[in-house]
Write a structure and sequence with these properties.
Low-confidence stretches: none
Structural class: alpha/beta
Strand order of the largest sheet: 3-2-1-4-5-6-10
CATH superfamily of one domain: NAD(P)-binding Rossmann-like Domain
Order of helices and strands: EHEEHEHHHEHEEHEEHEEHEHHH
Mean pLDDT: 95
CATH class of one domain: Alpha Beta
CATH architecture of one domain: 3-Layer(aba) Sandwich
């Protein structure tokens, strides 16, 4: 099949593109605006493959989207293009509204036009797969899990914009019959992760000998999903799931943020020890919490496990080891990103 991946130069999108080229016969077109978090170097392993294609364009540009559909004629659209960083959404919410809501509506309408022109088996098997987040569900207490029936309760400009985009996708299914599927995933981690997010940020700050800032008391809990496991889940859904279906996808690996940082330090202590008895954990410091910081996210993945046979391959510990080893071995990928200091500077202070 011909798979169009929006946001395919980003963290999850580039992993999906590399996976599809390596492990399927699908033809892949990455459609990416190349904002700060989209890097062509993440696609370097597949850039010269004959089944891989790339176009730099904005999902808000209706002409570019329509032209791409006309030229590539996709069988599958995997929609990953989004502004995703909560802290950035606090400081500048408008970009999140434009990309995550307006961009999604443009993509849906042009996908509908394209789908209506298809016939026979191609029309039957076409899917618009929308990748979303567990953050749309709000915050959990100490108990319970998010699943496909959890009501939406977004708390940040980012999660509100993603919740809105989820509902737009559902509206195009119910109103126009566009065959859509949706996944809501937990926190991803792994290689090629832009260094504004917790795990890569802590790895690179530790390697630079800097302080390791942890929000509040570090008690906030997230469920961690290795990005390659997520890519496998996405493929299973767009290849096998019936239209209109939603799946929650998590790693069953809940960790407090403080424990995540301590685990990173323990692995670095073993792989690249400091002189003497000093530990990387000695640099941990607690900083002012993020405004409206959700306490806990946790996902029940029973539906995708039962219906599609998906299971995460990596535990948090094995995935973290692979991630840290990758960053130690690939300084040539992440070092140029640090030239933009906003990648590693604290954001999300506008409301304080």
């Amino acid at each position: 099949m011909r798979v169009l991946v929006t946001g395919g130069a980003g963290f999850i999108g580039s992993c999906l593109a590399r996976y599809l080229i390596a492990d399927s016969s699908h033809e892949v077109l990455v459609f990416d605006k190349l904002t700060y978090a989209g890097t062509l170097t993440s696609l370097a392993p597949v850039a010269t493959h004959p089944r891989f294609h790339f176009i730099q364009a904005d999902i808000c540009d209706r002409t570019a989207v329509a032209g791409t559909f006309e030229a590539f004629s996709p069988d599958i659209i995997v929609h990953l293009a989004a502004e995703t960083h909560v802290d950035r959404s606090i400081d500048g919410p408008q970009a999140f509204i434009e990309t995550n809501l307006t961009g999604t509506s443009v993509l849906l309408q042009e996908a509908l036009r394209h789908w209506n022109r298809l016939s026979g088996g191609r029309k039957e098997s076409f899917r618009f797969h929308h990748v979303s987040t567990d953050e749309v569900f709000g915050s959990l207490g100490h108990d319970g899990y998010f699943d496909e029936t959890t009501p939406y309760d977004p708390r940040s400009p980012y999660s509100a914009s993603k919740a809105g985009s989820d509902q737009l996708v559902r509206a195009w299914w119910h109103t126009y019959g566009l065959p859509v599927t949706i996944t809501n995933c937990s926190n991803n981690f792994g290689p090629y992760h832009f260094p504004e997010k917790l795990i890569p940020l802590m790895i690179l700050k530790a390697l630079a000998g800097e302080r390791l800032p942890v929000y509040g008391k570090g008690d906030n809990v997230r469920d961690w999903l290795f990005v390659e496991d997520h890519a496998r889940a996405i493929r299973l859904v767009f290849e096998q799931a019936a239209p209109g279906q939603t799946f929650t996808v998590g790693g069953r690996s809940e960790r407090r943020n403080l424990d995540v940082v301590r685990s990173i330090c323990q692995v670095l202590d073993a792989l690249r020890p400091k002189a003497g008895s000093e530990s990387y954990a000695d640099a941990i410091e607690f900083v002012t919490d993020r405004p409206g910081h959700d306490f806990r996210y946790a996902i029940d993945s029973s539906k995708i496990e039962r219906d599609l046979g998906w299971q995460p391959v990596e535990t948090f510990e094995t995935g973290l080891l692979k991630t840290i080893q990758w960053y130690l071995q690939n300084e040539g990928w992440w070092r140029p990103l640090l030239q933009d200091r906003s990648a590693v500077q604290r954001q999300g202070l506008a409301a304080l």
